[in-house]
Amino acid sequence: MSAKIRNLKKVFTQTHQVKFKKILVSGCSFTYNNSDTDICTWPYYLKDLAGVETILDTSQSGAGCNHIFNSVIYECETNPLVKTDDTLIIVMWSGLSRTDMIAERTVTKDWHSMSNYCFDNQFSTLSIFNSVDGNSPIDDLCKKYKKIISLDAQIIESLIKIQALKHYLISKGFNHVFLSWMDPSVELQHTDTAMTMPLDQVPYLYEFVEQMRMLASDGHPSPDGHLHWVKKCLLPYLSVCGLTTDLNTV
Description:
Layout: E1 16-18, E2 22-26, H1 42-50, E3 54-57, H2 65-78, E4 87-93, E5 99-104, H3 105-108, E6 123-128, H4 137-148, H5 151-172, E7 175-180, H6 185-188, H7 205-211, H8 223-240, E8 244-246
């Protein structure tokens, strides 16, 4: 089992009842909870508010669509806790121009010291960041990769992975929700591909918290921003889709 399970103390009163015991999530730093003691991001607010028993977390800071694709399929294929009848999968897709790959943990452990997702004792995800300032071998790899591989190519590869994961989850019978942390049209304008992102109609987290003036100084949503987005955007959508029950209407 590779997904992280945090036993965080329940903080918020339940307002909805989700129809699943577990939720498997994946994404980038807009999903990753950077504390093992406090709730900071949307999956864990959703856990409290919707009566979820367990969050299976495969998110990683700086992750791209390749990591999300790999981590979700890996959990579905290898984790005995992930079952079609009791697990809802919610993905918050990252930037389409982000790139990552599977590499040995000896390579990734210092590069992702805080949030590295490990497939097993040997392999984990290595991000190829768009902008780096160091001079290590991995820094050089990132710089060279981004010079050789065009933005269009990275975006098309991401779109293929998103479509592929959608078809995989449908074929396996998993209930799933596809979100994006930002409006993908900002990146899609760079390419003339006919491919699209199959997203559920939930307001983008970044745009929501920006309008609410709930961005932290580092450009990420504040904890209150995550909480308000769950209450105002995600939970209402899940209720409309029949994935949760609003206890206030029962």
